[in-house]
Amino acid sequence: MRAVRLHEHGAADVLNVEEIERPTPGPDELLLEVAAAGVNPVDTYFRDGSYEPVGLPFTPGVDVSGTVVETGEGVETFEAGDRVFGTGIGNGGAQGSYAEYATIPTDRVVHLPDDADLLEAGAAGVAAVTAWRALIDHADLEPAEYCLVHGGSGGVGHAAVQIAAAVSARVITTAAPEYHDRLEALGAETVLDYDRDDLADAVLEASDGGVDAILDHRLDDYLQFDADVAATGARVVGIGENSPDPGFSNDGVARSKDVTYTFMSMFNTPDLRVPLRGVAYLMETDALSIEVARSYDLESAADAQRDVMAESVFGKLVLEP
Ligand SMILES: NC(=O)c1ccc[n+]([C@@H]2O[C@H](COP(=O)([O-])OP(=O)(O)OC[C@H]3O[C@@H](n4cnc5c(N)ncnc54)[C@H](OP(=O)(O)O)[C@@H]3O)[C@@H](O)[C@H]2O)c1
Known about the structure:
This protein has 9 helices and 15 strands. With 321 residues, it is of the alpha/beta class.
């Protein structure tokens, strides 16, 4: 089969397509014919060696959708021909989803609803599961609460806007002006340009004085901002930053409001099937659509990984082997 591989960590051009042997599923694993593999920032961190050591040679790709070709020993709930999607493969292993076939443990995959699109589902995993974990599990988001999603046009952001709207929270999000209409269509009550000078005032005005839950993917930019716009008792969930030195200029503001900060990794999800089933249900009921901005073939994996870090797109990039 054809698979993208890297033999050393480095820039995107270490990624090349090679002919390798098709894997066989181990106990409690599925072999999938890959339909789509979401492209995520974390794929680039595994590639450049900045996240966690991986066994080399390595095939990137954490997200997958596809059709079951073969089941490993002990598998009872899946059979050949099932359409599935999942996430969390290739995490520290040697074989991810940027390939014609991939294996995935059954505890990281769920069935795809009949009407759901394989391309969309292949792009869903990391983005939608992270948004679910942040807002549902960590922020305990409640109906009618104000929820601020920084960067609503991104992979995680656009899923978070829809998940927050699905629980009837009042969604405030930030994005470049070209994406405002689309975010309103996905359920945001207020969409603000993240570049405006009076952003904090605008968030406070839109939230009647303070937001209850915040999803922050740029903690170095917004750690203090989050405290400044928080309501008393607000929950802030941090998923990322651009430079590793976020800090408060006035942490007393956070203390004075009893703000709770949680810093999370999707890879710590105790049972990935729980949020994956939730995501599948929201897709089935049209409460969540994963926007696929662009699709790439395996030969263009390096371009896809460059683009996910450098280009502005609405939603997700995917590979289609
Ligand atoms: N902890 C976890 O488990 C976890 C899981 C998933 C992702 N992450 C991290 O979360 C981050 C986002 O991931 P992603 O997949 O959603 O990436 P993405 O699709 O590239 O989205 C990033 C978004 O940030 C927006 N943005 C740029 N400048 C901004 C600013 N000044 N203020 C607010 N938003 C701004 C971008 O908008 P423009 O297009 O307008 O530039 C884009 O919509 C990455 O750092 C990723 O590593 C962490």
